[in-house]
Design goal:
heterodimer, A: 348 residues, mainly alpha, MetI-like fold, two-stranded antiparallel sheet, two-stranded antiparallel ribbon, 3% strand, elongated, B: 484 residues, 19 helices, globular
C-alpha cells in the first residue's frame, strides 16, 4: 500500500510539473508578453520599447531558465536595465540588491506577484480558496445527501414508477449546465421584473456575510448539475446490489423491506458512489468558475477567470497548481478509499 | 398595433384547461409517489381461465389518474400548436405565432416519425429506439432542433428578422412587442420573444443559434471519436509502454480545468501565434489516417482493389484536410487560392479544435477500456491464430463489437460538447461577440438578467432541451441495446 501511494505521489508530481510547464509556456508566448507589457506600462509603446521593457524584467530569458527560476531551482535573474536600475526576481521593492535571496521560487514558498491585483499570489490564492471553500462545503452538504437519497430511492425497486420518475429528474439535472440553471434560477427567484424575489441574484455580499438570500442560488446551481450524475451512479449500484444473492436470502428469511435496504444493501451500494463523488471534484471546480462569474462571488474560480483574461502569469500558475493538486489528490483519495471500502480489492 | 399576449384569444379557453390538467398531473404524480411508499401493490388474483388480474388499490387508481391527466396535458399543448398554425396570425398569441413559424419543423418531424415507425422492424438499432417512449421523446427533442437549425439556417424558412439586424426602438422590449413601423398583422410585425440589449430579435437569434450548434457539436464529436479510437485501440490492444505514455498524456489533459484550457487556447494572442492551427493540423490528420488504416487492413490481401478504394477515399479526404487546416490570416496558409476549397469563418476553427482536444482523452479512455476487455475474447484469439494483422483485429474484430457502448457515449458526448460550446460562449471566448450561438447570447443576456430576463431565457431553455433530448436518446438506446 505504501509503495502504491508513493508511486501515485510520484506520478502526481510529474503531472503537476508537466501541467505547470505547459501553462508557463503558453502564457510566456511573445504576443501574450507584449499584451502584458502594454497593459502594465503604457498602451502606446513602440515595439522596441516593449522589447526593452520585457528585457529589463527578465521576460525574454529562455523558457526553461524562466521556468527554473519560477520553480526555484535556478537563481532568480538580476538585470541591470537599460535605464540603469537594477531589477531582480528576488528583489522586493525598496530592498537593496545585495540583501535579496539568490533563489526565490515556488519551492522556497515564494509564489510570485500578481500583476493584476498587485499583491502576493500566495495571499490571493489563500483568501480566495477560503471563500470558495465555504461554497464547496455548502454544495457538498446539499449535493451528496440529495444525490444518495435520490439514487437509493430510485434503485431499490428497479423499473417501478418511482424509479422512472426519479431517474427522469436526475437526467434533467445532468442535462442542465450551471450557466443554464443559474440563469433560470435568477430569472425565477431573483428577477426584479417578473420573479418571486425570494433570493438575491448576486452573491457578492456573501463574501462577508453568508445568508439564505445571497447564498442559496449559487449553491443550488452547482449542486444541481453534479447531483444527477451521482444519483445515477448510486441507482446503478443499488439496483445491482438489490439483485444479489444475499439480498434474496434476507428476503426469504423474512426481513422487512426497509430493513433490507438500510441494513443489508446500503453499505455495499455506497462503495461505487464514493469514488464518483471524489472524482466529481474536478467538475465542481468547473462549475465553481461559472457560478462565481455568474453570481459575482469573488472566490477561486473568479480569480482564475481574472488571471486568465489578463494574462497574469504568476497568479495563473498559482491557480493551476492548486487546481491540479485538488484534482490529483481527489483521484488518489478515491483510489485508496475504494480499496478500504471494498474488501474484495487488495493491491499488492 | 397591439402587442401580442402569450396565448392570444385561443388562450381564453385553452389556458384554464392547461392549468387544470397541469395541476391534476402534478397532484396525481405526487400522490402516486407518496402512495408508493405507504401502501402495498394491488393484490394479484388468478382468474379461472389462467390469466392474472391486479386488483386495483388506491395506488393503481392514482396511476390511472396520472396517465389521463398527462394525456390531457399533451392534448392541450397540441391544441396550442395546431391552433396557432390554422388560425390567422395573432389569434394564438406569441405561442401560436411561434408554432406557425416552426411549421416546416413540425411537418418534417411528423414525416420522420411516421416513416420510422412504419419501417421500424427493418431499421436495426435505430428502429428499436421507437419501442422505448423515453428514446422517442429524446429523439423528438433532438430532431426538433436539428430541423429548426436546417430550416432556420441555410433554408431561411423560420426566422422573422435578421439575427444580426437592429430595429430602432426595440431595445430590451418585452416579448410580443410590435415593431414601431409595422402596420398589418402579419408574420414579422412583432418581436415574438422580445428584443435584446442591442435591439435584435431574440427569437430569430435563438433559431439561428441552433444552426451553429448542430453544425459544430456532432462534427467535433466525430473528430474526437476518430482521435480517441485511433489511439485507444492500440493502447488497449498492445498495452506496454505505448499504453503507459498515452494514458499519462490523456490524464494530463483531463487534469486541466477545462476553462483554464479554453482561456489558454482561444484568446486572440494565442490564435495569433498559430498554436490552434498547428493543433488542428495534428488532430484532424487522424480522420484520413483512420480511414486509410481501416481500408488498408481490410483489402490488404487484394492489392488492386485496395489501391483503387484507397485512392477514391483518400484523395478527397486529404484535399479537404489540407483546405481546412490552411487558413488565410494564420501562420498555416500554404494552399494556393484556387486549390483552397474554403476558409472556416473567424474563430470557429479555434473553437472546434479546443472542443475536440478536450473531448478526445475521455473517448480514448473509454475505447482503451473496452479494447482491454474485448481482447481476451475467443474470437480475437481465433483471428490471431488465423494470422490476421493487429490492425485488422482492432478495427474489424474489436471495434464492431464495442459499437453499442460507443454509440450511447456518442449521443451523450454530443450533449456534453454542446455544453462545452455554451461554456465557451458564456465566457465570450472564440466566437465573434455578435454571434447568435446560445452560449454567447446567454452571456450577453446575463448582464441585465435581474431587470430583463427575457433575452437570456430562450437560448438557455433551447440548450437545456437539446442536451436533455440527447441524454434521453442515449438512455433509450442503452435500454434497447441491452435487451439483445
Amino acid at each position: 500500500m505504501a509503495l502504491f501511494i508513493l508511486r501515485r505521489l510520484g506520478i502526481m508530481i510529474l503531472t503537476a510539473l508537466c501541467l505547470t510547464f505547459i501553462v508557463f509556456a503558453l502564457t510566456n508566448l511573445y504576443p501574450n508578453l507584449e499584451k502584458l507589457a502594454k497593459t502594465q506600462a503604457n498602451n502606446r509603446m513602440s515595439d522596441a520599447e516593449v522589447t526593452t521593457w520585457l528585457d529589463n524584467r527578465g521576460y525574454l530569458d529562455p523558457l526553461p531558465v524562466k521556468y527554473g527560476q519560477w520553480l526555484g531551482v535556478l537563481p532568480g535573474y538580476v538585470i541591470e536595465g537599460s535605464d540603469g536600475q537594477i531589477r531582480g526576481r528576488c528583489i522586493d521593492p525598496g530592498q537593496a540588491p545585495e540583501d535579496a535571496d539568490r533563489f526565490c521560487g515556488v519551492l522556497q514558498g515564494d509564489w510570485g506577484y500578481s500583476t493584476v491585483f498587485r499583491d502576493n499570489v500566495a495571499e490571493i490564492v489563500g483568501t480566495r480558496l477560503g471563500l470558495t471553500g465555504w461554497l464547496m462545503l455548502a454544495v457538498m452538504c446539499v449535493m451528496v445527501p440529495g444525490a444518495l437519497l435520490l439514487g437509493v430511492l430510485a434503485g431499490m425497486r428497479e423499473g417501478s414508477r418511482t424509479d422512472r420518475s426519479l431517474s427522469t429528474v436526475s437526467i434533467i439535472s445532468t442535462a442542465t449546465p450551471e450557466y443554464v440553471s443559474g440563469v433560470i434560477f435568477i430569472a425565477v427567484f431573483a428577477s426584479s421584473a417578473v420573479g418571486l424575489k425570494w433570493f438575491k441574484g448576486t452573491a457578492t455580499s456573501a463574501m462577508d456575510d453568508i445568508t439564505w438570500a445571497n447564498f442559496t442560488l449559487p449553491v443550488l446551481t452547482i449542486a444541481l448539475y453534479g447531483m444527477g450524475y451521482i444519483a445515477r451512479m448510486t441507482r446503478a449500484s443499488m439496483t445491482e446490489v438489490m439483485t444479489a444473492q444475499y439480498i434474496r436470502t434476507a428476503r426469504l428469511k423474512g426481513v422487512s423491506f426497509p430493513n433490507i435496504v438500510v441494513k443489508h444493501a446500503l453499505r455495499n451500494a455506497l462503495i461505487a458512489p464514493f469514488t464518483v463523488i471524489m472524482l466529481q471534484f474536478p467538475w465542481l471546480l468547473n462549475g465553481v468558475v461559472i457560478v462565481e462569474t455568474l453570481f459575482n462571488y469573488k472566490g477561486f474560480g473568479w480569480t482564475l477567470v481574472q488571471a486568465a483574461s489578463n494574462n497574469d502569469i504568476e497568479l495563473l500558475l498559482g491557480v493551476s497548481i492548486v487546481s491540479v493538486i485538488v484534482v490529483l489528490l481527489t483521484q488518489l483519495i478515491s483510489d485508496i478509499g475504494y480499496v478500504y471500502l471494498n474488501p474484495r480489492i487488495r493491491i499488492s | 398595433m397591439e402587442p401580442l399576449t402569450w396565448t392570444g384569444e385561443l388562450g381564453n379557453f385553452l389556458d384554464p384547461a392547461l392549468a387544470f390538467f397541469a395541476a391534476a398531473f402534478l397532484a396525481t404524480a405526487l400522490l402516486q409517489i407518496v402512495l408508493g411508499f405507504v401502501t402495498a401493490e394491488g393484490e394479484t388474483v388468478a382468474n379461472p381461465d389462467g390469466t392474472l388480474t391486479v386488483r386495483r388499490g388506491p395506488r393503481e387508481w392514482a396511476g390511472e389518474a396520472m396517465k389521463w391527466s398527462f394525456l390531457g396535458l399533451i392534448l392541450v399543448v397540441l391544441a396550442y400548436i395546431v391552433g396557432g398554425i390554422v388560425t390567422p396570425y395573432g389569434t394564438g398569441g406569441i405561442i401560436g405565432a411561434m408554432a406557425a413559424r416552426f411549421l416546416p419543423v413540425w411537418i418534417a418531424l411528423v414525416a420522420t416519425f411516421a416513416l420510422s415507425i412504419t419501417f421500424k422492424r427493418r431499421l436495426g438499432l435505430y428502429g428499436k429506439l421507437f419501442d422505448s417512449p423515453i428514446g422517442m421523446v429524446g429523439f423528438g427533442l433532438v430532431m426538433f432542433w436539428v430541423f429548426a437549425g436546417i430550416f432556420g439556417g441555410p433554408l431561411d424558412m423560420i426566422l422573422t428578422h435578421d439575427p444580426l439586424g437592429i430595429a430602432s426602438g426595440m431595445k430590451n422590449e418585452v416579448p410580443g412587442m410590435p415593431l414601431p413601423d409595422a402596420t398589418e398583422m402579419a408574420p414579422g410585425a412583432h418581436y415574438l420573444l422580445g428584443g435584446d440589449n442591442l435591439s435584435r430579435d431574440v427569437f430569430s437569434r435563438m433559431v439561428e443559434g441552433s444552426w451553429i450548434v448542430i453544425q459544430i457539436a456532432p462534427l467535433a464529436t466525430v473528430f474526437a471519436f476518430m482521435v480517441g479510437i485511433t489511439l485507444g485501440l492500440p493502447a488497449g490492444y498492445f498495452g506496454g509502454k505505448l499504453d503507459t505514455l498515452l494514458t499519462f498524456v490523456a490524464n494530463l489533459i483531463l487534469a486541466f480545468p477545462v476553462i483554464l484550457l479554453f482561456y489558454l487556447l482561444v484568446t486572440p494572442e494565442i490564435v495569433q501565434t498559430g498554436i490552434p492551427s498547428y493543433m488542428a493540423a495534428v488532430l484532424f490528420i487522424f480522420v484520413p489516417m483512420f480511414c486509410a488504416v481501416l481500408i488498408n487492413s481490410r483489402y490488404r490481401t487484394r492489392p488492386q482493389a485496395n489501391l483503387i478504394i484507397l485512392a477514391c477515399v483518400l484523395v478527397p479526404l486529404i484535399w479537404l484536410y489540407l483546405s481546412v487546416i490552411s487558413q488565410r490570416g494564420t501562420p498555416l496558409n500554404f494552399m494556393p487560392g484556387g486549390l483552397d476549397l474554403f476558409d472556416v469563418p473567424g474563430g470557429i476553427l479555434t473553437v472546434f479544435v479546443s472542443v475536440v482536444f478536450v473531448n478526445s482523452p475521455t473517448v480514448f479512455r473509454i475505447v482503451r477500456g473496452l479494447a482491454l476487455d474485448i481482447q481476451t475474447r475467443d474470437y480475437v484469439a481465433a483471428a490471431q491464430t488465423r494470422g490476421e494483422r493487429s490492425w485488422y483485429i482492432m478495427l474489424w474484430e474489436i471495434l464492431p463489437n464495442v459499437r453499442g457502448p460507443l454509440i450511447v457515449d456518442f449521443c451523450l458526448r454530443i450533449g456534453y460538447t454542446t455544453i462545452l460550446l455554451g461554456t465557451l460562449g458564456f465566457f465570450g471566448l472564440g466566437l465573434p461577440p455578435e454571434s447568435p450561438d446560445w452560449g454567447s447570447t446567454i452571456n450577453e443576456g446575463r448582464k441585465l438578467l435581474s431587470i430583463y430576463p427575457h433575452p437570456a431565457l430562450p437560448p438557455a431553455i433551447a440548450l437545456l432541451t437539446l442536451v436533455l433530448g440527447l441524454n434521453l436518446l442515449a438512455d433509450g438506446l442503452r435500454e434497447e441495446s441491452l435487451k439483445d
